Amino acid sequence: MCPKSGILSKKGFLVFILFFIDCSFVFAQKKFVFEEPKMGSPFTVSIYSDDSLSAATAALAAFRKADSLNAILSDYIDSSEINRLSATGGHGRYINVSGALFDILQRSMEAARLSDGAYDITIGPVVRLWRKARKTKVFPEKDSINKALLRTGYRYVHLNSLHQSVWLEKEGMQLDVGGLGKGFVAAAALQVIRQYGFTSAMVNAGGKIVTGQSPPGKDGWLIGINSPGEKDELLPVFLLLREMSVATSGDIYQFVEFDGKRYSHIVDPKTGIGLTRRVNVTAVARDGTTADWLATACSVLSAKASFKLIKKIPGAALLIAENRNGKVIKKTSPGFKNYLQKHP
Q: Mean pLDDT, the chain, as a whole number?
């Protein structure tokens, strides 16, 4: 491999480009990698192109798409559309919303129904308690958790497709798309890149990855999987994906410890407690949104229930990797092997 790098400035944006040229390649296209921080994580766009300027233009458009969606969907932004909608909980009326918000709400409700509530977009009041706990290092009081749970429940979210409107039945509801939002945004960003004419591309939104067609001369995009609880250690298996998506959920970066026990940022919607198992769940699916919520829901569900759920999703596959006293135990759905690299 012959590594090269460069910097391109366009319309006030400074874009870092990293590309690698296989010296034995007969193809003219090169790999360009662009990265910006988005949604609290590195947001990386990889594009194969024979023109750096065109690739940079497409990447910038993808980043702008991510920014526009984040302004709608982020519950960290007080003025976001999703927060304005949450503020109408208990008002007894439907509220008209944008197409993007209605789309992700529809996907969220589908995820909740299929997973029997293991994924629940209304978990926001409980998630906020755990965010505070991670900052203050003070365990949430049981009474506070129970009160927050009273303001949750996906069955209290009502959608009207005809008028693209939403009614939140309970007062104090707080919608949180954290369990599928990055996959949704990554898919939208890849669609923008395709509109610019680039088919061999990949978007990585903080570990939620969507892929287009294979890189030139390759069978797919090679993707590693983190070992449970490890930032830099990979499992000895690699995915090879094209026109597919993958998401991994775990507690590598977001967790809090109390009395020697580690609690994940992923909260069980039924108990309101952060997960304590040292487990990574990797879900492969045909689109980024589905892969993202499957990884979240299957972190909450038992392995048996998770594999039962995966059977409902055409093309989906699952790897559950759990760290038990330093030993990694892996369980996979039957179709997972179809997405593995055949010859390392």
A: 88
Domains held by the chain: number: 1
What count of Cα atoms within 13 Å lies in the side-chain half-sphere of residue 338?
12
21 domain residue, yes or no: no
What pLDDT does 324 receive?
76
Counting every residue written for the chain, the total comes to: 344
Average pLDDT over every residue of 278-304 = 94
> How many Å is the Cα radius of gyration of the chain?
21
Q: Ramachandran region of residue 227, left (φ > 0), alpha (ψ -120 to 50) or beta?
A: beta
pLDDT of residue 228: 62
Residue pointed to by tokens 């298996």: 237
In a domain? residue 29: no
Indicate the Cα dihedral angle 99, 108, 75, 181, nearest 10°.
Answer: -90
- Average of per-residue pLDDT across 254-277: 80
CATH number of the domain within which 151 lies: 1.10.3980.10
- What is the residue range of 113's domain? 81-168
pLDDT grade for 279, boundaries at 50, 70 and 90: confident
- Are 177 and 108 in contact by the 8 Å Cβ rule? The answer is yes
Specify burial of residue 54 (Cβ count, 10 A radius: 0-12, 13-18, 19+): middle
Strand bridging mode 245-249 / 208-211: antiparallel
63 assigned to some structural domain: no
DSSP character at residue 211: E
3-state secondary structure of 283: strand
What are 138's two structure tokens? 């003070």
For residues 137 and 262, give the distance between their C-alpha atoms in angstroms, rounded to a whole number: 12
Angle at 288 between CA 39 and CA 81, to 5 degrees: 45
